[in-house]
Structure formats: C-alpha cells, structure tokens
Design goal:
It is elongated, with a radius of gyration of 31 Å. The protein is an all-alpha fold and 232 residues long. A two-stranded parallel sheet has the order 1-2. It is 61% helix and 2% strand.
Amino acid sequence: MLFGEFLKCRFKPSYAVGQAADAWMMYMDWLLTPGLSESECDSVKEKINRLVNIYYDAADGPKTGKDVQIHADLKVDKFPHFMEKAYTNFYNSTSILGKIHDRVKSFEDEKAQSTEVWRLPFFDDGPPQSCIKKWESLYNEYLTVARQMSNEDSILYGAAEFELSPRSQKVICDEALAIYQIVYSNAEKNGVGKCGFAWKVAGHTLCQHFMVKTGKIPLGFSLDMARQMIGR
C-alpha cells in the first residue's frame, strides 16, 4: 500500500498546488489594484482564502489521500505581466506589485546600459609604437597563457612598487597609456569585465596622469594613517 502511494505521488503529481499559488497571486494583484469597489474587494478576499485552503490541502494530498482540484470559479485565464515568463496570456498590472516589478526591470535595463565601455579622454595621448607593441605581446600572453601571472606591474615599474622604480616616469606613463588603450580596445569587443587589467597593472600611474591633466592635487596618506582614520 505504501509503495502504491509512493508511485501515485511520484508519477501522478498534483498540479493543484501550482495552480492555486498562481491563481492566488493573480487575485492578490487584483486586490492591490486601485479602484476596486468594496464588494469586489470582499469577493476577491473570499477567493484568496479559499485558494489558501486548497493550496495546503493539495500539499498534504500525498499524506491524506485527498484528490484536490481547483474549483471552476477560482480558475483564471489571465495573469499579471510580472508573471509573463510562466504564462503567455497576461495583462498589464497597475498594482503595487506591477509597479515594483517595472521599477526593478528599469534598474536592470539601466545596469545593462551602464556596462558599456567608455574611455576617459585624458588617456587618449598616443604612446610610442614601441610601448604598444611591447604590451600587446604581454597582454596577449596574459590572455592566452598566463592568467595567473601576478608580476605585470613589476614589469611596468621595473620594481615591486611604483615608488621604487628606477625607470623614467615618462616611459612608465607612456607604457601605462599603451596598456589602457590596448585593454580598453579589447574590452569594447569582449565586455567591460576586461577593463580591470589596466587598473591592476597601471592604476597608480593612470591616476597620476589623470590628476596632472585635470590639475587635481593628490591627497596622500600612509597606509597606517588611513587605517587610523577609518578605525581599523
């Protein structure tokens, strides 16, 4: 008997649970829509309560053996537009639920638009071809062979850190601009996520170049002082 019940639940699942949940959502959307009369609100609330009971009866069906069905007067043939992924027949919801859905969707659209790659005009200076060729080779190596390599910045600076570099600042700046332009050209084709390499390798120099171009004055702090200021 138990095995028979198992087979029944396994191969004859109750669709009433999902149907009740979806119908409940539609009626709740209707209830939250401005302009309903008092009698309409009372009717919708009564249907919502019935659907809640049907939902739990259907969920308990495998244990109780009850065959639960959705009553004809509770079935719906249209759903709010925020359920359109599950249904093709839908209406435009004007309830708070529909407005929240539309607002979130607009944020998603804005986010998608914000992922477009755009370049700062301050980095348009043309670096020497020798710098471009050098870093095109290194960047292609990074992309195809050695994504785990972590010494690109030391290649740029010729030292572990910018402040310790024995190289000319002019040469470092030219190479940083070459890195920026090479990486952003690739990012324009393959996505904004590719931009990080330029800032990881040449971020310090690019920021300095930006400040020189804009006339900004850098406000420097030691790491210890910065930690004290933020309480860490």
